[in-house]
Write a structure and sequence with these properties.
- The chain is mainly beta and 215 residues long.
- It has 2 domains: 85 residues, Aminopeptidase N, middle-beta domain (Immunoglobulin-like); 81 residues, Immunoglobulin-like.
- It is built from 3 helices and 14 strands.
- Strands 5-2-1-7 form a 4-stranded mixed sheet, with no helix packed on it.
- β13 and β14 form a beta hairpin.
Length: 215
């Protein structure tokens, strides 16, 4: 029996026949193109709207712009969760989403995490800057969950580091400047819930989830 290897073009034709879609752009950027998208996701609340600014560039000069849909999952306090698909096709874009209820938290679809580098400001619940193993080599937080206080421990020199505490609505709760390997995060006014610590030092930025429990 004679067999012949299929080419990428053969696969493209077959995929188009099965899906009924034109896959020219998909193959041009993801198969034949070079590099990967680097996406900055900036957001803020303004009255009853969520304002989003995205800045996306390619890691390779030969492929400066990528086209894909970014899924944004909004957890709302008194309404059903909502998913919005943002079409990313330009370097700088702005979006406005009217909220039906108070925002509890945001998550971004991380299905692209292996091919898209995403950072968020303020941080969102499911986006971190490094893998957990890399993070553990540089900084750790214990105890976590905590009742009254928790300690941030740096494995390396942390002189000049900045630690910021955010709630899941993107509001900054507190900010600390640190020059020691250990320092204590303590705030008796913190309510029970999930918070995000953004720790910035000369080695980069870490985003860690911490949980305040009720006694």
């Amino acid at each position: 029996m004679h067999t012949q290897n299929a080419s990428a073009d053969d696969f493209k034709v077959a995929a188009e026949q099965v899906t009924g879609l034109n896959l020219d752009q998909y193959f041009a950027q993801w198969y034949y193109g070079q590099g990967f998208p680097i996406l900055n996701f900036d957001w803020k609340l303004q009255l009853d709207s969520l304002l989003i600014t995205t800045h996306c560039i390619g890691s390779a000069e030969s492929n400066p712009v990528f086209n894909f849909n970014l899924e944004v999952l909004l957890h709302l306090e008194n309404s059903r969760d909502s998913i919005f698909k943002l079409p990313i096709f330009d370097t700088l874009q702005q979006f406005s989403i009217k909220l039906q209820s108070s925002l509890a938290s945001i998550e971004l679809n991380t299905d692209y995490s292996s091919i898209v580098s995403i950072t968020s400001n303020p941080p969102v619940l499911n986006i971190i800057s490094e893998t957990q193993s890399q993070m553990a080599q540089r900084v750790s937080v214990y105890p976590n969950p905590f009742y009254d206080s928790t300690t941030v421990h740096f494995q390396l020199n942390s002189k000049g580091s900045i630690t910021e505490l955010f709630d899941l609505k993107g509001r900054i709760i507190a900010k600390w400047f640190n020059n020691d390997k250990d320092f204590v995060v303590s705030d008796e006014s913190l309510k029970q819930g999930i918070y995000l610590l953004r720790i910035t030092d000369k080695y980069g930025t870490n985003i860690l989830k911490v949980v305040k429990e009720k006694k």
